Amino acid sequence: MGILYRKVCRKPNLRKAARLVLANALISTSESTRDEAKQFQLRLEQNISDLRKQLVAGTFEFPPARGVAARKPGKTARRPIVIAPIASRVVQRAILDVLTNLPFVQSIQKKAWNHGGVKDGGVAKAIAQTYEGTIRYQYYVRTDIKDFFTQAPKEDLLAIVTKHTDEPEFDALLTRAVNVELDNLAELREHKDIFPLASRGVAQGSCLSPLLCNLLLHDIDEQLNTGGMMSVRYIDDLIIFAPNRSRALKGLKQLKHELKRFGLDAYDPPTKGSPAASAKAAAGETKKGFSFLGCDISPEAISPGKRARGSLLAKVDALCNKALTSQRHLKTGTSEPMTLASDPTLLSTLWRVSNTVRAWGAAFSFCTDHRIFRQLDADVAEKVGDFRRLWRAKTSLLSAADRQRLMGMSLLDDTNFDMLFAKLVASRAGTRRT
């Protein structure tokens, strides 16, 4: 057993990986994922011991995952999300921790040309570097690598790692961790072809995918940061800065040439007489401002973009509409159980709206145009006000007790009383009367 494989098998590494995986899974929007995570956590140490034994014995297998063809907001296209079982995610995360400590991986990540899927990255750092490019350069080209995760060449991705590891057991485990097998192909129907089941593509949803793709693009990043150019990348979103239009477009041409070697391509921005094939590409003078990673950026300000603002308000609308269309009020006074997930109350809905607003604000806390935040607060307040008025109308015919239940407040009258004591008291009271 090689050094890297032994590191994956160590209990502290598996335990650390499990805690990271569970932290995300326990707050997942998927009820089945949350339930699976809770069950895994109940037997955490035993599950870690079982994983270690299987890995050491060479008997661990990655069970089939579940595919979700997620609809992209405002579009008909679907994004293929692969949801692996918790045990698979723990092993994948343990492999990732071993990989990120390899010297060649650390040297690449220190270059800071890409800020997605790296330990010390993030959107805020990408935007900070982008703003620097806005100040230093006169022209930009923004683009997106087409179908990056679904078309990335799997063999090339693995070869980048295995030529540095040269450890058969570890390399075989990594290969199995990257391969995708789905247990619900029949359910996916016409969308099954967008999932990475063959020689191309890696799983969106796997912690290994961003790292492998970043390693693939590292040499391209290096080329785009020489010759008077500067680039910023966040996974498959990329912007090139240059002193003039000619140099920026030359950088894009260079990018497309290098991507072609891997069977990939990038979107073209509009040119005279040729409109852009996608909103994912644009070009122009930096002083006029542009959009990148959900933000509007100009020398004067950094603001949440129009689509990001619309997304927040749409989420608030969705939460309010779910509560208003819920049939929870029909269950009041019955023995049918009520759950917060499917039967939202007034209080739980307001709590979810508050959390949504808080999370959105935290995601854009680096922005400088606070007027937009105040306007969004007013928009959310108006939506919440409308929601509460409609809620009152919906519940107006209920009794005071049922309105309280539907609000999400507990009633003492709903206590699950211990009938043993009631029978005891009743029997004693009857004896006295006799």
From TrEMBL:
Highest taxon of the lineage: Bacteria
SUPFAM superfamilies for the chain: DNA/RNA polymerases (SSF56672)
InterPro entries (alphabetical): DNA/RNA_pol_sf, GrpII_Intron_Splice-Mob/Def, Rev_trsase/Diguanyl_cyclase, RT_dom
Gene3D superfamilies for the chain: 3.30.70.270
Domain Reverse transcriptase: 51-297
Pfam entry (one): RVT_1
Family: Belongs to the bacterial reverse transcriptase family.
Cited PANTHER family: NUCLEAR INTRON MATURASE 1, MITOCHONDRIAL-RELATED, PROTEIN YKFC
Protein name per UniProt: Reverse transcriptase domain-containing protein
Provenance organism: Paraburkholderia ginsengiterrae
